[in-house]
Write a structure and sequence with these properties.
340 residues, alpha/beta, 8-stranded mixed beta sheet, 11 helices, 14% strand
Length: 340
């Protein structure tokens, strides 16, 4: 029996189901992962981006295909319309060959986890105006070259979006009202890789005999000093930025205290003047002068939160590198003892 508002079509039913269920998993197709890695690796050391295509079904976001965005130069900064036309043309061509052309987000490359920026948040907000559950795939080609897959899927948390939308400024009142901390900005979604049955059968057919390859030997390389040095340099730079943000906050509070003191002195003087005017039978002057004491703008807390997030990312990478290095050292020690 149809409802009073009329029958619900499939698209409306899927949209209602999507809105009511949180995003729990991102399913990446193997072909899409290869395209992302190829684009990011070939463009090193430049940072690149691309469009993600797929389906949003229930608690799973399926990424089935992607295509790269053209690299923009300094002379192409004003050609935003050309970039939009390129995306529409690519999606039209994919639709003609029966490929999923539904936008579910974008991917971008990074260097050693340096991706938490204001530009990333603004891109999320722009995407979510039309796509409520969009994601961003972060790919680190430098870390992936060591034999692992350095790919993660992130999204903005709903509590942060509610506080950030509007003026784009994260004030102390918004932080307290939304109970937002530096951990409440990004949310990492688990990523699963999946291949079609035909692709899995082909890989099993062409898989070479089990022999030791150079990439397997590279995994036992004990030299992690350059990576550790770069991470430590990035941490030092972020700590300097954090100190500068703290100085901005301290400067703001000093200015507010100075203004309040000046306002109290002015109010006391005005009250004395009004008391004298009343004694002389004259009309009292207003005791609130909004033009004289303008509110001091509060520093945006977003920069401080992003810097703290970035420091946490670098520290986690340092911990991971150190743990892997210790494991390799113990393994080599055991191998040496076995040959004695």
């Amino acid at each position: 029996m149809a409802s009073e508002g009329g029958p619900m079509n499939f698209a409306a039913a899927m949209e209602k189901k999507t809105d009511s269920s949180p995003l729990r998993n991102v399913q990446l197709d193997g072909l899409a992962v290869l395209k992302i890695l190829k684009h990011c690796k070939e463009s090193m050391p430049s940072l690149v981006t691309g469009q993600l295509l797929g389906l949003d079904i229930g608690q799973t976001l399926e990424v089935t295909d992607c295509f790269p965005f053209p690299t923009r130069t300094e002379d192409d900064e004003g050609n935003e319309a050309d970039g939009a036309n390129y995306q529409l043309e690519m999606m039209r061509c994919l639709r003609e060959i029966n490929v999923d052309n539904n936008t579910v987000g974008w991917y971008q490359s990074t260097q050693l986890g340096s991706f938490q920026t204001v530009e990333l948040i603004e891109t999320f907000v722009n995407y979510q105006e039309s796509i409520k559950r969009c994601i961003c795939i972060i790919c680190d080609p430098q870390r992936s070259s060591g034999g692992g897959l350095a790919v993660k899927a992130i999204k903005l948390k709903d509590s942060f979006i509610s506080a950030y939308k509007g003026d784009g400024i994260l004030t102390t009142e918004k932080v307290k009202a939304g109970n937002i901390t530096w951990k409440e900005i990004f949310e990492e979604i688990p990523v699963n890789l999946q291949n079609s049955a035909l692709a899995a059968a082909m890989l099993a057919e062409i898989e070479p005999p089990s022999v030791i390859k150079q990439i397997d030997v590279d995994k036992l390389n004990l030299s992690v000093l350059p990576t550790l040095e770069r991470n430590l340099e990035f941490v030092t730079d972020c700590l300097d930025d954090a100190v500068m943000e703290q100085q901005k906050v301290s400067y703001y509070h000093r200015n507010v205290a100075r203004q309040q003191q000046q306002q109290a002195q002015w109010l006391q003087k005005r009250r004395q003047e009004n008391a004298q005017r009343r004694a002389n039978g004259e009309e009292a002057l207003p005791e609130e002068d909004l033009q004289q004491f303008k509110p001091i703008p509060e520093p945006n807390q977003l920069d401080n939160f992003l810097i703290t997030n970035q420091i946490n990312t670098y520290c986690e990478q340092l911990s991971s590198y150190s743990m892997q290095s210790l494991q390799k050292l113990h393994l080599m020690e055991a191998l040496q003892q076995s040959h004695l």
